[in-house]
Design brief:
There is one protein chain. The protein is 44% helix and 15% strand. It has 413 residues and is α/β, with parallel strands linked by helices. It folds into 2 domains: 195 residues, Rossmann fold (3-Layer(aba) Sandwich), CATH 3.40.50; 164 residues, Glycogen Phosphorylase B (Rossmann fold), CATH 3.40.50.2000. The strands form 2 sheets. Strands 3-2-1-4-5-6-7 form a 7-stranded parallel β-sheet, with helices on both faces. A 6-stranded parallel β-sheet has the order 10-9-8-11-12-13, with helices on both faces. This is Glycosyltransferase family 4 protein. It holds the Pfam family Glyco_trans_1_4.
Length: 413
């Protein structure tokens, strides 16, 4: 039985589809946006002259996937584009409401395809698989839920802790999860045959917070991989001279959930000659909160994934003190690119003691202490960067594909 990967957005669904394709187990990927060579937006981007064409090609590059057979991708922009347009226009709450409605419609579309063309195994992702999994038309389909983040009830408790010290950072982009969203997640837990998680932290949060019975037997650890086509092959980094600032990188949603407030607090306390910070990703906090360190940071905003390897290789360390993740793939991407890692335990499976510094809880004091350690000990920084590159090789795409194959064999799919 072949497997359908379903996700209206991206996350790591392209990697999963590519792994299944390599195992000859992929039926197709059903998604919202994809840079399909035959699509109208792709043709238009390559015909438009000058800046408009470059902008459109750059944006489409965010939805490309080298190596994935375009004939195995079915893209339905109607289920993703409206939410992205609303969010880009600043209507974040509207975008969330639109996303919930469209995710339900997307799941119904998947169920109709499965009923018409199946049977298939379904590989879905949290918050977008509920409608497809619960639909009677998919009752005979084995279902795998890819749980990409800790349970929402854990996050709602964490929000209260953040509010005590950095409430102003929660002003936009970092809401509590609604009861409706949490209920949808429980539907996904209930109907899934297996729930794959990128870290033990996620597994434990699902076990602890969800009332759905039988979860312990469903939960499976499936470590994520990185895109070797983009991030492998980085040259061994040279030592960072003591008279140069250490270039720290954050990549992800610039939000309180990701712990950016702790990085900003830390960078304010560090000497200007010692550190420089780059933020990559959509800014989801009030800009006034970044103003006090405007002369210390570079804000790049959202960039297409193909541009990330070059950006990473210009930096020395990734700092990622997240409060709530699944297992951030950016950790492994950075390691493969030769960056030392400063992360929280909640960020997921990333650095070891050889390749970075893992904080049990994210806070400014520990972030500052970790950054200071790398600034003052350039030999340690260099050793961690080299170790990170070696450790990343153990999390390559072949290992990820092998784990998926073993899971499907165990399930009898």
């Amino acid at each position: 039985m072949r497997t359908v990967v379903l996700h209206p957005g991206t996350q790591h669904s392209r990697q999963t589809a590519l792994a299944l394709q390599g195992l000859d187990r992929l039926a197709f990927l059903i998604t919202g946006l994809f840079d399909h060579p035959g699509s109208l937006p792709h043709r238009l981007a390559h015909r438009l002259p000058g800046a408009p064409g470059r902008v459109l090609k750059r944006e489409l590059g965010r939805f490309a996937s080298a190596g994935l057979d375009p004939s195995k991708v079915r893209a339905f922009p109607r289920y993703e584009l409206p939410e992205r347009l609303a969010t880009r226009a600043g209507a974040v709450e509207l975008g969330r409401r639109v996303d919930a409605v469209l995710n339900k419609a997307f799941g119904k579309r998947v169920a109709a395809i499965a009923a018409r063309e199946g049977p298939f195994a379904l590989w879905g992702y949290d918050n977008s698989a509920f409608a497809a999994f619960a639909d009677k038309r998919t009752s005979q389909c084995p279902k795998i839920l890819d749980r990409t983040i800790a349970d929402g009830r854990y996050w709602n408790e964490e929000v209260e802790r953040i509010a005590d010290t950095h409430g102003d950072w929660l002003a936009k982009g970092t809401p509590r999860w609604s009861e409706q969203r949490i209920a949808r997640n429980d539907i996904e837990y209930e109907h899934a045959d297996r729930i794959v998680c990128g870290s033990p932290f996620v597994m434990e949060s699902v076990r602890k917070y969800s009332p759905v019975t039988g979860l312990a037997e469903k939960l499976v650890l499936l470590p994520y991989s990185y895109d070797a086509g983009l991030f492998a092959g980085a040259p061994a980094p040279p030592p960072v001279p003591k008279d140069e600032p250490v270039r720290f990188l954050f990549a992800g949603q610039v939000s309180a959930r990701k712990g950016v407030q702790h990085i900003v607090d830390a960078i304010r306390a560090l000497p200007k000659s010692g550190a420089r910070l780059t933020l990559v990703g959509p800014v989801m906090v009030p800009e006034k909160l970044l103003a006090p360190v405007a002369d210390r940071i570079d804000i790049l905003g959202s960039v297409p994934r193909p541009e990330m390897p070059v950006i990473m290789r210009r930096h020395h360390a990734l700092v990622f003190p997240s409060h709530c993740e699944g297992s951030a793939i950016v950790l492994i991407e950075a390691m493969a690119s030769g960056l030392a890692i400063i992360q929280s335990a909640a960020a997921g499976l990333g650095a070891s003691d050889r390749s970075g510094i893992v904080m049990e809880r994210p806070n400014a004091a520990q972030v500052e202490q970790a950054m200071t350690r790398l600034i003052e000990d350039r030999e340690l920084l260099h050793e961690m960067r080299l170790a990170a590159m070696e450790e990343a090789k153990l999390r390559d795409f072949a290992a990820y594909r092998s784990h998926i194959d073993a899971l499907l064999i165990e399930m009898g799919v």
